[in-house]
Amino acid sequence: MFPPEQAAGCPTPQSDLYAAAAVALQALTGTHPTAFPRDEQGRVFGTRLGPRNRNCGAFCCGHWTLPPRRRYPNTAALLADLTALPYHPAPPPIVVPHPIRPRWLLSAVLAGLGGLGAAIAGQWSPAPTAPPLTVALQQALARQQWAEADRLTSAWLAEPQLFLNGQIRATCTEVREVDRLWQEASQGRLGFTPQLRVWRQAPSPTAAAIALGWQDGQGRALVATRYDRSQARWVYALLPQFQNPPVGHLPYTFRESERLRPRWHDGLIACLGG
Fold first, then answer.
1. How many Cα atoms occupy the beta-carbon half-sphere of 246 within 13 Å?
2. Helix-strand-coil split of the chain, %, nearest 5
3. Which of 36, 100, 168, 260 could be cross-linked to 205 through a Cys-Cys bond (beta carbons 3.0 to 4.6 Å apart)?
4. Cβ burial, residue 207 (10 Å; 0-12/13-18/19+)
5. How far is the C-alpha of 135 from the C-alpha of 116, rounded, in Å?
6. Are 60 and 71 in contact (CB under 8 A)?
7. Cβ(211)–Cβ(227) under 8 Å?
């Protein structure tokens, strides 16, 4: 059980016995094994490790400086001697008393920090938030920017909180308000109510889509949407007529996967009493 590298006088960390001794010496002396003083042959000078007491010094010499055959034969013997060393508890830490600062100083510091915070808040005011849907939509409709108004309406309809499994979750009050803004800006030509009127008067869904300008007479789509996964939103594959749109043409609320009667459009019509 005696490592050959110890017998040669040059122990290495690969030896369990050497490793145990090195860790013990580091704990006793506060010196990392890589910083142990060595001679030109790589042997450790046990007497130069700066042991804290005589017993520690004897342990150092017993492991490092004795003839190879008189050194510890195994880790059990090493740990037995290490355990037998007397315990000297570390002295209690020295507590340096701090002078008590007057309370008015703390109040002055807090007041200064409050003034600095107010100055920073005044200099760097938060960025203005986006206007609510109805405000932005009303502004776009007032300028007859049908494309922007249609985009805002579609974005509002596509918000996750407004739908659950395809069913509309918006309140009917919100639906009627959006419908009112569209009708007022277009003299009653655009909005959900004009669309509903066309649906009621047409003999079939296909005839209604043709009357609304969403299909041609051959059944081909004139307006279509697709889901763009890279943008995680619906986009137009075929744009609506934003210049001189037919009655009820906008806003376009259909999605290609739902054909002519998507469930959320049914919810819009239900809010309008259709």
1. 15
2. 50, 5, 45
3. 260
4. middle
5. 36
6. no
7. no
Beta bridge pairs of residue 60: none
- What is the sign, positive or negative, of the torsion defined by CA atoms of 32, 33, 34, 38? positive
CA-CA-CA-CA dihedral for 205, 208, 214, 216, to nearest 10 = 90
Phi-psi region of 179 (alpha: psi -120 to 50; beta: other; left: phi over 0): alpha
**pTM exceeds 0.90 for this model:** no
Alpha-carbon Rg for the chain in angstroms: 43
Beta bridge partners of 221: 215
Token pair 């909180």 is at which residue?
A: 161
Cα 261 from chain centre: 39
For the ranges 110-114, 166-170, 186-190, the one whose mean pLDDT is highest: 186-190
Condensed to tens digits (0 to 9), the pLDDT of residues 220-252 reads 999 988 878 888 777 889 999 999 999 999 998
